[in-house]
Amino acid sequence: MAQCGSIERLFVLGLDGVPFSFLKRGMASGRLPHLRELARRADMKQIASELPAVSSVAWTSFVTGSDPATHGIFGFVDRIAETGDLFIPTARNRRAAPVWVRLSDRGRPAVSINVPGAYPPEAIRGCVVAGFLCPSPDRAAVRPDVAARLQEINYVVDVDASLGKAGDKEPFLAALHKALTGRRDLALWLLEHEPWDFFQLHIMETDRLHHFLWDAADDENHPHHAAFWEFYRAVDELAGEVICRVADTAHWMVLSDHGFARSHCEVNVNALLRDLGFLQYTPAETMNLDPVADCSRVFSLLPGRIFINRAGRERRGCVQSDKVESLMKDIADALLETRHPATGGAVFDRIVRTRDIYPGPLRDLACDLIAVGRDGFDLRAGFRTTDVFAPPSQAGTHTSGDAFVLAGEGILRGDEATIRDVGRRVMEIMLP
């Protein structure tokens, strides 16, 4: 296909949490032959995630082509500033329309399967099948025929994380394969029966595998090393199969939303801010900000989002506007000086001001700072403990700078540096 400014049809395959560096190694080793063949005849590059590097945030930036202060999804958990209550954002909280809605509004059909942030599913010209946060398959689709198909194939919305936490990983691995088979069956059925101009299939199981078995990837002595790569063989075959189905009639793209690293420490950012003198709280397990004392100058929500307790914005805000700038500098300096007590290594890679990376109109709803941990530091929040450091509870944790995009001819301009940039490019070529 010749390069062009706009295109008629685009197929997108999302591989959640698959790092660029990992993919390159897998291709070089011969373990991912189908993806290697796709890369041989396409453009492949490393991109950065959105900040924070959370699937629901990054994929919403991709499907809307906009930043969090435009689309309104800032993290897996957010707060209501006026009340201090915490909630889990869904598509109801999204302020910008995804590409499939915008196409549908123009009378063009689209399909979205399992994309994070797409629950509850919209009724569009085409269909949306919701992904994680959808409580059950019978609530994943609006269209009766699609809902019936989900029931026929025993479709799995998301793998139960408790299986990954168990000592016996065999049920977890079986659940991953079952979920992946359901994605494949549904995608092939819709490709055969459904007209579309845009089709996005999302594989969440790669992220789930990495969280609980990332340590098995490179360790040949790990009891699940072979099983890890057996699952990737199935992912690789799926990628080759679906791209082969569409390549003659549509453009295509494969991409991820963030990277992964071996987790070696969990860091409770609220406990750290407490030790540094910026925050006071009473330990409690709660879904609100009640534990935060009135005199606290900051608080954090995961992963690494830091809110100044601004007067006039937060429920019990005490920091006046003329003190915000100096306070943000003091916090950033203190965090960058933080060292792990056992290794002496730095905990944070950088501290970013959201006003520098979020150009959208909803910046007042966003946090003020985002702390980006060094690879392997799993940034947590909450108020249940005052312990800053804890052993890892999962094998792998997200990284922000090692995602990838693999795109057929005519898609990328070449200057895309982030998943948001790639999404903006999709909007340009699909909705000129």
Question: What does this 3D model show about the protein?
Answer:
By secondary structure, the chain is of the alpha/beta class. It folds into two domains: 285 residues, Alkaline Phosphatase, subunit A (3-Layer(aba) Sandwich); 126 residues, no CATH class. It is 33% helix and 18% strand. The chain contains 14 helices and 18 strands. Strands 2-18-8-1-7-5-6 form a seven-stranded mixed β-sheet, with helices on both faces. It has a four-stranded antiparallel β-sheet with strand order 11-12-14-13. Strand 3 and strand 4 form a beta hairpin. The protein is globular. 50% of the residues are buried. The model has no long low-confidence stretch (mean pLDDT 96).
How is this fold's topology laid out?
Layout (H helix, E strand, L loop, with lengths): L9 E6 L4 H10 L3 H8 L2 E5 L7 H10 L3 H4 L6 E2 L6 E2 L11 H7 L4 E4 L12 E4 L14 H9 L8 H5 L4 H24 L4 E6 L1 H9 L11 H22 L4 E5 L3 E4 L2 E4 H7 L22 E4 L3 E4 L15 H13 L11 E6 H4 L11 E5 L3 E4 L8 E2 L5 E4 L3 E5 L11 H12 L2
Parallel strand pairs: 1-7, 1-8, 5-6, 5-7, 10-15
Antiparallel strand pairs: 2-18, 3-4, 8-18, 9-17, 10-16, 11-12, 12-14, 13-14
